[in-house]
Specification:
The chain is of the alpha+beta class and 576 residues long. It is built from 16 helices and 22 strands. Helix 7 runs antiparallel to helix 8, helix 8 crosses helix 9 and helix 14 crosses helix 15.
Length: 576
């Protein structure tokens, strides 16, 4: 799916290799062009109103369906390349060293791309200006010629200060040791942003008053995608206002014909045919009169509420979605109202936008300086992938959960510390519920243990947290199933005789950590993130698996780790 013989998987185009991302191919480093420059006209178009209304697009294009008919375009970036033998630097398009070939025609030394680039918060990215850097204090004495530069190592430490850029014309030499220092950025104009956007076109620039930062081309903050995930589940009539309007839109012609002929009585008759409660007649009337639109009712919270309503049904078999409630082991009944085996669930992942040098808040829709992935084109669309997976849904016992929230003492400090860190980064504090920490930590504990038995790796499993005043569940699923929708390895573990031992083992593993007692104390002076008793050695999972970026975790919400603690929701389960 690239311009060369090499390919990029559709899932990579949604995550780390999307438009504007630097991708390391076998022979060169490239930057992927904006999605409107790809050849995706043969990609299936998905017009699910829940997705399009939230994203405000006409459709999304499913890249992993009919992928052989699609081509992804990219251009070489960065331009600066270095010879591993003679250390010469060049901005020309050649892939082998010109100077080595001059000495020996058979000596074709492949050039490697520069390690450093410049980027700014507005999304612009440029080559590091080596020529300006080496001559920043004194111009080259031979200005009529293009300076010939070499990059050599002087010293044995391997640090940046050992790397020197040398101009062979004027013999000036400058270490790279200070290229990331803030003082250098403020002092020299070579760090002024030129507004370059090579993923759009070589000449695509716009005005920008930022000072650019030097970073490694492979650094994680050079490209941070914003990926939205949607479960394509059937809706139930006992849902929110948005759910009802979505059902109306699917058969809008019928509603409009009956409304035109019988006014509100016609809407009532149509609602009866669609099993929609009559309490929504006034909302439907306003929609048909054009007073409200589907987009106005669409929020990510409303979409998750739709999923919650479907996942909590005793049995559902519609389209590609298949789930049913399973029996619960007696020992788990006090903790869960229901456990559901989801044999097939479609998931659509949409690349919405991306950022540079900043990360998108996973908890809110606060505005950040994002960059679009589709620049031009009507109708408006976004790239996406659709996978069919399987999973297990856990609905917590609401009564016990409420009792635990009233008595627990451990989450208040964590929530306060997290909101303090948000204020430091000029973000609004959030109203976080204790159940969010409990469910999130439970999800991580179980996700790690399930991976040992289901046949999927931990990176193939994902979590979906439903935690609010009226939602209290965790969905652990995979979207790595085969074309039929499921491999069955995960859902097979939903049986009570298999699931109980897995949950107990998951909780037992949370009782110890190689970083204890520092980890189990939950002291924030030892943490770089707003977590309690949680760290890489015990609780964290991969970023692609975690919905909240490994934040708001604490093993003490699950079980009692230290003397005199009584905050463990599942502590009595381990005594069984």
């Amino acid at each position: 799916m690239s311009q060369q013989a090499e390919t990029i998987r559709p899932s990579q185009l949604i995550y780390q290799s999307g438009p504007g991302a630097i991708v390391e191919l076998l022979s060169q480093s490239v930057i992927v062009k904006s999605a409107d420059q790809w050849q995706t006209s043969r990609a299936p178009q998905e017009k699910d109103a829940r997705i399009t209304s939230f994203l405000k697009v006409d459709h999304v294009r499913i890249l992993n369906e009919n992928p052989d008919k699609q081509k992804i375009k990219a251009v070489a970036f960065p331009k600066w390349k270095i010879c591993p033998k003679c250390h010469s630097m060049t901005e020309f398009d050649n892939t082998t060293c010109y100077y080595c070939a001059q000495k020996d025609a058979e000596d074709l030394q492949e050039l490697y791309a520069s390690r450093f680039v410049l980027a700014c918060e507005e999304g612009h990215i440029s080559d590091f200006p080596y020529e300006e850097w080496v001559h920043r204090k004194k111009p080259c004495s031979e200005q009529s010629k293009n300076p010939r530069l070499v990059l050599k190592t002087r010293g044995k430490s391997g640090s940046l200060s050992d790397l020197h850029v040398i101009c062979l014309h004027c013999n000036q030499s400058e270490s790279l040791g200070r290229i990331m220092h803030p003082e250098e950025r403020e002092t020299y104009s070579l760090f002024d942003c030129k507004g370059e956007r090579p993923w759009i076109s070589p000449t695509a620039t716009n005005k920008c008053g930022c000072k650019m930062k030097t970073t490694l081309r492979g650094a994680s903050n050079v490209y941070s995608p914003a990926v939205m995930s949607f479960l394509q589940v059937p809706l139930t009539a006992s849902s929110s206002e948005f759910d009802i309007l979505y059902l109306v839109q699917k058969d809008e012609e019928t509603f409009r014909v009956m409304y035109a002929g019988m006014q509100e009585k016609g809407i009532e008759a149509a609602c009866s045919l669609k099993n929609i409660p009559l309490t929504f007649v006034s909302v439907i009337k306003r929609y048909l009169d054009g007073e409200i639109t589907l987009e106005e009712s669409s929020t990510y919270e409303s979409i998750k509420k739709q999923e919650w309503n479907t996942l909590t049904q005793d049995e559902m078999n519609e389209g590609c979605f298949l789930s049913r409630k399973v029996s619960i082991a007696p020992a788990l009944i006090p903790y869960f109202d229901g456990i559901y085996q989801v044999d097939s669930v479609p998931e659509v992942q949409v690349l919405k936008e991306f950022t540079r040098l900043d990360y998108i808040d996973r908890f809110t829709d606060d505005e950040v300086k994002t960059q679009p992935v589709v620049i031009t084109g009507e109708p408006k669309w976004l790239p996406a992938v659709r996978n069919y997976g399987e999973g297990i849904f856990f609905k917590f016992n609401e009564e016990k959960l409420s009792q635990w929230e009233q008595s627990e003492q451990v989450t208040k400090t964590i929530i306060q510390a997290y909101n303090t860190s948000r204020v430091e980064f000029k973000k609004e504090p959030l109203d976080i519920l204790p159940r969010q920490l409990l469910m999130h930590t439970f999800s991580h504990a179980l996700l790690q243990e399930l991976a040992a038995y289901c046949g999927y790796t931990t990176t193939s499993l994902k979590e979906r947290i439903y935690a609010s005043e009226d939602m209290f569940g965790v969905f652990i699923y995979t979207a790595s199933g085969d074309s039929e929708g499921s491999l069955g390895g995960l859902t097979n573990l939903a049986q009570s005789d298999k699931l109980l031992p897995i949950i107990i083992r998951a909780l037992e593993k949370m009782s110890y950590c190689s970083s204890d007692p520092i980890c189990s104390d939950g002291e924030f002076e030892y943490h770089t993130t707003a977590n309690g008793a949680a760290c890489h050695a015990c609780t964290f999972v991969s970023e692609t698996s975690c919905e909240w970026g490994n934040l708001l975790l604490d093993r003490r919400t699950l079980i009692n780790l230290n003397p005199n603690e009584q905050d463990g929701y599942f502590d009595q389960l381990l005594e069984v």
